[in-house]
Every structure is written in structure tokens, then in C-alpha cells.
Amino acid sequence: MDRNTSASRGFPKELISTLVCQKDRGSLVADGETPEYIVDGVLKCATCSERYRIDGGILRMLPETQILGDTLASEMAARDREAEKYDRRIASRHYREVISTMHALGVLQGKTVIEYGCGTGRLTKEIVQKAHAVLAVDFSLISLKIVQHALPPDAPVGLVLADSIRFITKEHTFDRGLAAQFFEHIPTERERHLFLQHAASAIKHGGTFVATIYHHDLRRRLKKLSQEGMHKSGIYYYFFTMREIQKLFAQYFVPQKITPIDIMLPFAARLHLSQKLSGYISRCLECVLLMRLLGHLILYQGAPKK
Q: Where does a domain end: 35, 61, 87?
């Protein structure tokens, strides 16, 4: 591909074939002649003629705010408010989560990846260095704009403003799927199943889906903390047990790996270890049965059921 600086800030034309109309699953086609990267344009459903705008390189596939549920609309506002603070707040966990997550995704060379709830792109930036192309979905426009400015000018990333729970794509299209710290923010059982159904459908047979999810770990259980609640920002959360994740995902995926990650030893914060050393220790502890009980996140790796 010829990826000059101005074109690369648009939506990659090659990723249009992975998309479908959110109303009737019809194929989408670019309206008129289009460059390899579309900065401003329109995609139109070949069946119902529904139109989706590409504005400033971001594809808009989110319904109007007034028809969204109260919980979703509230979270959208919270995500927009918190977007610029998010990377700073979660930076200390980078080496305890990202390396294990990238390893679970496997070889990415030549692969096309869909990332649900990409946020400000902390994983997107890692994936795009290795993958052929990435479709990154989030419902925070501010977060997507942060991703857009953080990526290198030749990054083959399609940014989509959409509700990841309900977002549908062409079936069996992506080699890899990722949902990093997204699943725990889905507020209802019905919506969790809806998301998993869509994610399993999007990935090719023989492909891989990876998720990292809040873990109701030993510390939380000893403190008798609730599994469910709201962050101060107003974002819903649920801390899952391993058994709950196994049961939910089993209907849609064949498990390949499920293990706690992001492990910190008791009193580790007092030692003021470097982030890299803390990450190395965490990855070593992933192999120690009792230490896994302290993992802040559950890492799930699976293949879609046929």
C-alpha cells in the first residue's frame, strides 16, 4: 500500500469489506470514488441504503444518543470525561498485563485483528506494530481521537465509533479478536451473551479470541468486597470468578487458556519495584498455583466454536 502521511489518517479502504450494515447486515460500499484511506466520506448499505459517515478518518456507526439506553449513554459520557486521564492511571499495570495479553494473541504477522473497547489505544499501539490491519472499536469519540493522534502515520488501523456490545461485522472475517478490560463493564447478563455471540461470529474458524477481565481475587474475597459496583467516574464494573468466566464463554468458545494475570505480591508496593521488574515477577507468578489467586485480571484465550 502507498501510505502517505495525509492518507494514512483516514479509514483504510481495505477494511470496508469486513463491515456490514448494523440494521440488516448488508454489505457496505463506498459512496463514489475513494482513496486508499478515506478521511471524509460515506459508506452505504447495498441492501437498505443506510448511510454511515466517515468524519475525520473515524467511521461513525453509533446510533443517535437519544435512542441509547441510560446506562450506555451515562458510560459514554464518563469515558469521554476520563479519556485523557486513563493512560496515566493504568500505566503502572502495563508490564503486568500487556505482555501476557500479546503473547496470548499469538503470531500477528499478516493477520487482521478486531479490538473491542479499544479505549485510548494502549493495546492498539502494540498490535499494529505486528498485524496486517486492525479494526478498533469504541464508543468514546474523544478516546478514538487520542488513538488517532498516538498511532504512527502509516498505521493500518480503522477506527470505528460504535457500541462494541452490539457491533456486528462480516462473519468469520478476523484472524484475532481482543477485548482488554472491556467485558467487566457490560452491565447485564443478556448483553454479555450478545457481545460474546457477536465476537465469536466475527472471528475465523481456527482464529483466536483473547479477553482480560476483572478478577474477584483472593484479596477482594478476604475483604468481602462486592463483585459489582460503580467506579467514581460513573462506570459500571463486575469482578468475575474463574468459574463464572468459564461458564459464560463456554457457549461460544473452546477454551485454550484461562488464567489470572497482573499479580502483585502482598506488600509489593512498599518495595518500590520498577514497572518492568514488577511485570517480570507477575509473569513468573502466573505459573504458581497459589499466587494466581492474587491476580487482578483473568486472561481468557479461546477459539470460536464451529
A: 61
Rounded to whole angstroms, the Cα distance separating 144 from 142 reads 5
Task: Work out the mean pLDDT of the chain and round it to a whole number.
Answer: 86
Query: To the nearest 10°, the Cα dihedral for 68, 69, 72, 78?
Result: 90
Give yes or no for a contact between 297 and 212, defined as CB atoms under 8 angstroms apart: yes
**Do 37 and 71 share a structural domain?**
no
Let me know if 75 is exposed, middle or buried by CB neighbors in 10 A (0-12, 13-18, 19+).
Answer: buried
Structural domain of 132: 67-304
Q: What is the pLDDT of residues 197-255, one digit of tens each?
A: 999 999 999 999 999 999 999 999 999 999 999 988 888 999 999 999 999 999 999 99
- The dihedral sign for the CA sequence 28, 32, 33, 38: negative
Q: Do both 71 and 56 map to the same domain?
A: no
pLDDT tens profile 257-296: 999 999 887 666 666 667 777 776 777 777 877 788 889 9
Q: Are 88 and 148 in contact (CB under 8 A)?
A: no
Grid coordinates given for 38: 478515506
What is the predicted pLDDT for the residue at 233? Answer: 80
State what percent of residues in the chain have pLDDT above 70: 85
> Which is nearest to 65 in space by CA: 55, 56, 76?
76
pTM of the model: 0.88
Pair (54, 176) in one structural domain: no
Task: Please check whether residues 46 and 92 belong to one and the same domain.
Answer: no
Q: What total of structural domains would you count in the chain? A: 2
Other beta carbons within 10 angstroms of residue 282's beta carbon come to 26
Question: What counts of helices (H) and strands (E) characterise the chain?
Answer: 9, 15
> Do residues 48 and 21 lie in contact, with contact meaning Cβ atoms separated by under 8 Å?
yes
Same domain? 142 vs 202 = yes
